[in-house]
Amino acid sequence: MEIYTPRDIYHTVELIGRRVVELFGREKDRSAAVLVRENRQGKFIADILANPESYNIKVNLAQQGIEVYEVAGAIDVPKSPPNSSLSCNFSTAPIPPTT
User: What is the pTM of this model?
Assistant: First the structure.
């Protein structure tokens, strides 16, 4: 279990980005996802991580070779809790397109 007390939502996203960099640094062929309650939250997180300089975020996933995909509505997640969706995906390996 990890417990953090971020200052605000932008610091929360920065901490997510830092953790992604840490985990991907151990092994490059990985993918990860952030589970959010609403699709707009995933879009918000993906936008911040894709444009860190616009939000004064000190972690830059692109510089680490980590791509951010906003996949709201593109993935059907069966048996997920109501109002939950997989909305932000990180990968250093190619992700096959969804059909």
Answer: 0.70
Alpha-carbon distance of 38 to 72, in angstroms, equals: 9
Residue with the two structure tokens 């860190």: 52
The whole-angstrom separation of Cα 77 and Cα 35 is: 10
Q: Which helix (H) or strand (E) holds 22?
A: helix 9-26
User: In the chain, at which residue ranges do the beta strands (DSSP E only) sit?
Assistant: 31-36, 67-70, 85-91
Q: Which two tokens stand for residue 79?
A: 């048996």
The residue among 35, 25, 34 whose CA lies nearest residue 83 is 35
Higher pLDDT, 86 or 44: 44
Domain assignments of the chain as residue spans, ordered by start = 9-91
For residues 18 and 14, give the distance between their C-alpha atoms in angstroms, rounded to a whole number: 6
